[in-house]
Amino acid sequence: MAMAGKVIKCKAAVMWEAGKPLSVEEIEVAPPKANEVRIKVVATGICRSDDHILNGAVTRAKLPIILGHEGAGIVESVGEGVASVKPGDKVILLFNPQCGECKHCKDPKANLCLKSDVGKHICLMADQTSRFSCMGQQIHHFLNTSAFTEYTVVGEYSVAKIHDDAPLDKACLLACGFSTGYGSAVNVAQVTPGSTCAVFGLGAIGLSVILGCKVSGAAQIIAVDVNKDKFAIAKELGATDCINPKDHEKPIHEVILQMTGGGVQYSFECIGNTDVMISAVLSSNYGSGTTVVIGVPPSSSTMPLDPMLLLTGRTLKGALFGGYKSKDRVPQLVLDLISEKFKVDGLITHKLHIDDINKGFDLLRKGESIRTVIHF
Ligand code: CND
Ligand code: ZN
Ligand code: ZN
Questions:
Q1: Ligand with smallest separation from the Cα of 110
Q2: Rounded to the nearest 5°, which phi and psi values hold at 117?
Q3: Ligand 3 center to residue 95 CA distance, Å?
Q4: CA of 333: how far to CAs of 153, 268, 342, in Å?
Q5: Distance (Å, rounded) from C-alpha 33 to C-alpha 60?
Q6: pTM of this prediction?
Q7: Among the atoms of ligand 1, which is closest to the Cα of residue 180?
Q8: Catalytic residues, which ones?
Q9: What pLDDT, in 10s, does the model give residues 144-192?
Q10: Which of 205, 230, 275, 293 gets mutated to test ligand 1 (max ligand atoms within 8 A of its CB)?
Q11: Most buried among 80, 83, 113, 247, using CB within 10 Å?
Q12: Directed axis angle between helix 274-282 and helix 252-260, to 10°?
């Protein structure tokens, strides 16, 4: 490849400061070192987790940084020792990596690889340096991925080769939103046929939870959102009931307990609001309910939960990336997308050029978009 081994100059959206719009700049992207892969990003979704950093609710990332963790693209070049991908391969970025060697990768029940940057926020490559610079300044990496740039560099454990027929503008949603939601229903909660479910928050993640509950054969899927504009798509994807907490005087968990004669078997928090996490537990069945926390709360949040709720048989759990071991499972999910076992089309409401990325964040904040997919 023409640029292999050389620095590439390209466009990227840089976050210099919280609470300010991203700045589209020309950056330099260094070649991949050993066990690293340089990728031309083709499409990347805007997830609420990117906005949590940009709007300052989550303060853990190091600045300046290139956000974006829902990317798909094509390998440009690879560093020494890389065996699982080659230049020209279509790939998906894995914000939740799978190195295959750490204690968690070897545990069939765990999916949080120790190479993950979630909770550590080192925001650098494995050798503690960055491959990005802008105007002479080092720019940090986000969640081992950084997708809001035409070219990115990731560790081999943070990229999965996918089928050549994959449509990258849709497959990028499998890098976070779809897989996180769907896997939370199918793997983490293991929703059973005929069961009752409640899904709090109807963004791409909550809507993908609905798809997972439906494919698992749930009989009742109650969708909860404060934005009624989300209800049409929720119903289309499989919700049986849609409720808005603003329409009820009593707390929403009481409404759900009444609707279900004592609570749902599975509830999912897909917002990142600790009060709603408690509502989700309170909405679950006495004796057997399971609640899955998916939303990322603001930094330093805690949650007062009456332990009697757990003593009386409820389970509270949480997971990243829908519990999937990413490098193993993403290529299979892409095959299911190609064969139309599921569709993500309904989740993509907008497509924008990287120059207009701030408009994508505005749409998300106003509740007018589900996923905006950025192209370059
Ligand atoms: P998005 O913001 O699109 O959806 C959230 C929805 O919740 C919106 O429709 C809101 O209207 C709704 N909402 C907000 N407040 C309330 C409330 N009090 N009651 C009911 N509904 C409400 O977000 P998204 O789908 O992109 O992401 C959802 C969360 O998941 C978010 O916190 C994100 O950071 C997190 C996440 C988790 C993971 C993971 O691996 N666990 C990966 N990526 C993102
Ligand atoms: Zn690992
Ligand atoms: Zn995400």
A1: 2
A2: -100, 0
A3: 8
A4: 23, 21, 9
A5: 26
A6: 0.98
A7: 40
A8: 47, 49, 52, 69, 176
A9: 999 999 999 999 999 999 999 999 999 999 999 999 999 999 999 999 9
A10: 205
A11: 113
A12: 20
Write out the H or E segment, with its range, that includes residue 64. none
- Could you identify the residue written with the tokens 């899927």? 221
- Taking the CA atoms of residue 323, residue 47, residue 28 and residue 375 in that order, the dihedral angle to the nearest 10 degrees is 110
E strands present in the chain: 8-14, 23-29, 36-45, 65-66, 71-78, 90-93, 132-134, 137-141, 151-155, 159-161, 196-200, 220-224, 241-243, 266-269, 290-293, 315-318, 348-353, 371-375
Is the separation of the CB atoms in 205 and 223 below 8 Å?
no
Cα–Cα distance, 54 to 16 (Å, whole number): 9
How far does the centroid of ligand 2 lie from the alpha carbon of residue 85, in Å? 18
268 and 203 Cβ atoms separated by less than 8 Å: no
32's enclosing H/E stretch is: none
Q: Which phi and psi angles does 55 have, rounded to 5°?
A: -90, 0
Q: Which ligand is nearest to the CA of 321?
A: 1
DSSP 191: P
pLDDT attached to residue 60? 84
For residue 245 and ligand 1, the question of a CB distance below 6 A is answered with yes
CB of 320 within 6 A of ligand 1: the answer is yes
Query: Of all atoms in ligand 1, which is nearest to the CA of residue 201?
Result: 7
